[in-house]
Amino acid sequence: MKTLQSTLLLLFMPLVMPAPQVQQDSRVISDYGTDPFEETLFSQDYEDTYLDGRNIKKKETLMLTDEKSLQLQNDDISTPPPPKRENDEMPTCLLCVCLSGSVYCEEIDIDAVPPLPKESAYLYARFNKIKKLTAKDFADIPNLRRIDFTGNLLEDIEDSTFSKLSMLEELILAENQLLKLPVLPPKLTLLNAKYNKIKSKGIKANTFKKLNNLSFLYLDHNALESVPLNLPESLRVIHLQFNDITSITDDTFCKANDSHYIRNRIEEIRLEGNPIVLGKHPNSFICLKRLPIGSYF
């Protein structure tokens, strides 16, 4: 019986004995992993040995990406931007306010007329810094009916600026620096150019002759030496106060050779503030229903 146990013990001993060796190996591996310096060396060695090929590809990809990015940046720097066209400026209806055919560009310090929507009928560009108007400003805007440039710095207006605006009825150029009037459109009913520097030589003889719809004319506070010629029969209100008018004649408002002629439509003529004594020209008002406002001595 003892012999049998000894034999079995001998048979199983090789299977049991290696166990301590496994524990020792585990301890060694565990100890190796706990040293940060050695772990770093192991990681570097593993990456250099087994991942070298893949790392090279990754590095090459990164380098190519960087080169492309650098090239794009260089292209952006070296390629100049395209020249800005006038129509590329800020859209008018962001700069101004557009509402049902009306464009409001008031007090925004613009120094030129912005491109207007083609359907514009009313333009209010008051209190800005516009110095000049040209025909190009309104070339493609045929439906304009009212234009207001009150309180700008206007010194010059090309003759053809408004002449082709066949629908224009009201033109307001008050409080500017104008020395003369441009050619006016045929359907104009109101012209307001008060508080400028307009002299009589700045108004052509036929400026008002064909304006058969003109009802309101405001030229007060200018530098006129005489009443404009050929004032149309349609006029209802004429403001010429505070100019340099020194005299009037029998043909200024009436017709000297026609004692039956009466200007029925005129409701108001203002001439006060001029160096003229209206009492010296009684026959100049014989066709009027109301005497002009001014001094009578």
Describe this structure in words.
This protein is of the alpha/beta class and 297 residues long. It has two domains: 44-80; 96-297, Ribonuclease Inhibitor (Leucine-rich repeat, LRR (right-handed beta-alpha superhelix), Alpha-Beta Horseshoe). The protein has five helices and eleven strands, in the order αααααβββββββββββ. The strands form two sheets. A nine-stranded mixed sheet has the order 1-2-3-5-7-8-9-10-11. Strand 1 (97-99) and strand 2 form a beta hairpin. Residues 1-12, 14-70, 74-79 and 81-89 have low confidence and may be disordered. One of its GO terms (molecular function) is growth factor activity. Induces bone formation in conjunction with TGF-beta-1 or TGF-beta-2. Residues 1-18 form the signal peptide. Keywords: Disulfide bond, Extracellular matrix, Glycoprotein, Growth factor, Leucine-rich repeat, Proteoglycan, Repeat, Secreted, Signal.
* CATH architecture field of the largest domain: Alpha-Beta Horseshoe
**Structural class computed from helices and strand pairing:** alpha/beta
Strand segment tally:
11
Report the β-strand fraction as a percent range: 5-15%
Order of helices and strands: HHHHHEEEEEEEEEEE
Q: Give the overall shape, derived from the CA principal axes.
A: elongated
Q: From the alpha-carbon coordinates, what is the Rg to the nearest angstrom?
A: 47 Å
End-to-end Cα distance, whole Å, is 166 Å
> How helical, in percent, are the residues?
25-40%
